[in-house]
Amino acid sequence: MGWTADGDGGGLRVFVSHTSELREFPRAGSYVAAVERAVSASGHVVVDMADFPAGDLPPAQLCAERVQSCNVYVGVLGTRYGSPVRERPELSYTELEFAAATDGGLERLVFMLDTEADDPGIPASRLIDLEFGARQEAFRRRVKEAGLAVQSFGSPAELGMLVERSLRELRARPAAGARDAAGGVAVRLGLRPAFLAGREELLAGIGVRLAPGAGRPGPRVVALCGLGGAGKTSVAVEYAHRCLAEVGVCWQFAAEDATVLAAEFAVLAAELGARAADGRDPVAAVHAVLARSAAGWLVVFDNVPDLASVEPYLPPAGPGQVLITTQSQYWPPGWAVQVPVLDPDVAARFLVNRTGDADQDAAVELAGELGGLPLALEQAAAYMQATGTPMARYLGLFRDRQADLLARGEAAGHREHVAATLGLALTRLGQDAPAAAGLARLLAFLAPEPVPLGLLLPGPEVAGKLGTEQASVLGPLLGDPIAIGDAVAALRRFSLAAPAGDGLVQVHRLVQAVTRAQLTADQAEQWRQGAAALTEAAIPASGEPPTAWPACAVLLPHARAVLDLTSGGTWQVAQALGYSGSYAAARDLFALIADVHRDSGDYGVEHPDTLSARANLARWTGEAGDAVGARDQYAALLPVRKRVSGPEHPSTLTTQHNLARWTGEAGDATGARDQFAALLPVRERVSGPEHPDTLNARANLARWTGTVGDAVGARDQLAALLPVRERVSGPEHPETLTDRANLAYYTGAAGDAVGARDQFAALLPVRERVSGPEHPQTLTDRANLAYWTGKAGDAAGARDQFAAVLPVRERVSGPEHPETLAARANLAYWTSEAKNAG
User: Fold this and answer.
1) How many CB atoms lie under 10 A from the CB of residue 151?
2) DSSP 334
3) Are strands 336-338 and 498-499 parallel, antiparallel or unpaired?
4) pLDDT greater than 80 at residue 108
5) What is the DSSP code string of 307-323?
6) How far apart are CA 70 and CA 106, in angstroms?
7) Distances (CA, A) of 494 to 228, 258, 328, 445, 489
8) What is d(CA 434, CA 606) in angstroms, rounded to the nearest whole number?
9) Residue 299 contacts residue 251 (beta carbons within 8 Å)
10) Is the pLDDT assigned to residue 392 strictly greater than 80?
């Protein structure tokens, strides 16, 4: 902070720190009184911790802030060590006050009790700290070694005289903190953050960028960019405090308003003694001093709107550092450094440490709800401390009354709460770019995940799905990538959105919350309906083809956020999860869909959609590794299907087909073969001999024929089926590829291991191209290629292939999935075989 007067009389704010025994005894109490009289007699204001602890802040933070609100620190050190700081028990409050004064750049006057004095006014038994004597002595030594002019006193009168004389000498120096161009330190900084979690790596990176280096003459500049409340100012102030010992000027400007910024340059010019000497405007005067300075300097421009607003004030020359805090993302190359929200683990630890509430589970959940935003975390912690609210209860309150709590809680070092901070940015956005404000409202009702704007706003044809207000605001964006780009750019000027990949944009969950809170109930419902309509329209009509999987994957969280579980869009996304290989996710989503259909008055237990949801749940249960569960679910579903739809309805036959399949997967291969043998003629009669469902029944009959021991029969059936399948479904349809895989396997089982190996080698690149390199079916083909490579005589090759596929299978399917267990067993087997062969 600067060396500034308190009031028109030129008085200073003097913090008086003393060890406990100097106020504890009647005669000793006169020591503290003598100091206070001396300060007041010199025309200054006394500040101490007599009412400590006060307010809602943690004691250590309150103490540090009170010290750093002053100009001068007067330390009167006796023989007591003092009470340990709750948050930092390795320190006493006396030590903490001295450290806060040092960090804040205060002028420090230190006086120590002379324990050899004839009459110090304290009983001899109290001149030795029995519990913390060694720590107190170590602290006294540190103070003496700090380079300060420590003065000894032996009586209250002597102490009062020393304090008054020292303050008089201090005031006789050049005006508080003012330094001429020849050197010295001019400092004005905000209070050092009492709690700054998870920023060490960021601070180190700033130091590297601002360090002088070859080829970088003149000032180095970093612009700290980020969402309001991300802690940009806290990071900048902490960095500046760490630089105090290395610079001749360390000055923080409030840069949001040009008038205020210009006035603050006049203050700094006066501090530097530059204005009168140069006879120029304050900005030019300060620039001239900084350019001529031999010592390093650091200036912080806080809360800068954009480059144009601050550019005239940036020092053009000199060996200095310039640190800018801003919501804008647009800066010259190499300047911008993003200040991210906190990692979830760091945010949770902050909440636990800040509140003293050890409920780790609640801390993790609350950190997630707050999105790791430092201002929101500090605000929540302050509210909990002020009201005595446990973290678990606050979590429930926040989920119910998000908007209310975002406007409550006094965050240390912040003028505004989250709702005001983000609300101001949204208000300015609405004034500057109405279409961007409309986009912000749309995004507010989607999930806080990357949003594919091209899919949601494809063209004018979706305007009819929107309400009148939404259509008028979003109309200019529909189908126009340039207009969409302009809207995103406007959002980024306030850090209200961030690019998240090609065509993707993401907003923080608290930006969404504050945006929603600015709407009336009717407006909110209209925007929610608009978001739902655009999301439903963007979801592909079928989730089966691989071309639909990427769109469904990126739309999944938004479908969950705005669509009912009974909607067709949610259904298609769930199917895409399964077809793409996310079997467990598909199972879990269909479990929710089935329950909602069953319990809904619009559907009910035997509605066809309910039965279809149950069928999908059973299928993906099996694919996720629970064959017995899938079999039992299909067995329970089949009689209902027969009663509702009839014994030969295609949906009934499909249920029979799947019951047969999962009967085999559950271990009854003979039962599966016999069920498929009975099903096939019915399917041929009902659907036709070349219907895909009929071909599927033929393929499964062949497979289970082979499984019960007739590999040659299976091979021959599959060989006859394959050309029909290729003609009906196409050579690269997933079912065609599965038939090729089964033909290759039973070719090997019939005695031709080399043929099996070669067929799998030819199939694998096609499967990878169609389904992806980590699709479960691709991994099954890789495992089969490895197996038949071993059977063809190359045990080492089989071992190496299984070693490569196993970790992928574990990641994709889970460590206990049957296919994972099979891969692990095969790796062990072929490792042994390779060792024996060697």
Assistant:
1) 16
2) T
3) unpaired
4) yes
5) HHHHGGGS--SSSEEEE
6) 7
7) 8, 18, 5, 19, 9
8) 49
9) yes
10) yes
Among 172, 170, 153, smallest CA distance to 161 is for 153
* Amino acid residing at 597: H
Per-residue model confidence (pLDDT) at position 332: 92
In whole angstroms, what is the distance from residue 767 CA to residue 784 CA?
13
Whether 19 has a pLDDT exceeding 50, the answer reads yes
Per-residue pLDDT at 411? 60
Distance CA 76, CA 78 (A): 7
Q: Does position 591 have pLDDT exceeding 70, yes or no?
A: yes
**In what order do the strands lie in the sheet containing 107-113?**
45-47, 13-18, 72-77, 107-113, 151-153
747 and 755 Cβ atoms separated by less than 8 Å: yes
Looking at residue 11, its pLDDT comes to 57
pLDDT of residue 31: 79
Digit-coded pLDDT (tens) for 20-65: 777 655 444 567 878 888 887 766 677 765 544 444 556 777 777 7
- Alpha-carbon span 597 to 600, nearest angstrom: 5
Confidence check: pLDDT of 16 > 50:
yes
Count CB-CB contacts under 10 A for residue 222: 23
pLDDT over 90 percentage in the chain:
50
Q: Rounded distance, CA 554 to CA 556, Å?
A: 6
> 315 near 219, Cβ under 8 Å?
yes
And the tokens for 792? 């063809």
Q: Around Cβ 42, how many Cβ atoms within 10 Å?
A: 18
Whole-number Å distance between alpha carbons of 237 and 233 = 6
- How many CA within 13 A on the CB side of residue 122? 27
**Amino acid letter at 703?**
R
Give Cα 622 distance to the centre of its chain: 35
Identify how many contiguous H helices and E strands the chain contains and give both numbers: 38, 14
- Say if CB 285 and CB 273 are below 8 A apart: no
Please give the helix or strand (H or E) that residue 160 lies within, else none.
helix 156-172
Q: Are 546 and 771 in contact (CB under 8 A)?
A: yes
409 conformational bin, left if phi > 0, alpha if psi -120 to 50, beta if neither: left
DSSP for 407-443, written as a single string: T----TT-SS-HHHHHHHHHHHHHHH-HHHHHHHHHH
Round to whole Å and give the CA distance between 565 and 571: 8
Q: Higher model confidence: residue 382 or residue 759? A: 759
Check if the beta carbon of residue 790 is closer than 8 Å to that of residue 766.
no
**Other CB atoms closer than 10 Å to residue 7's CB: what's the count?**
11
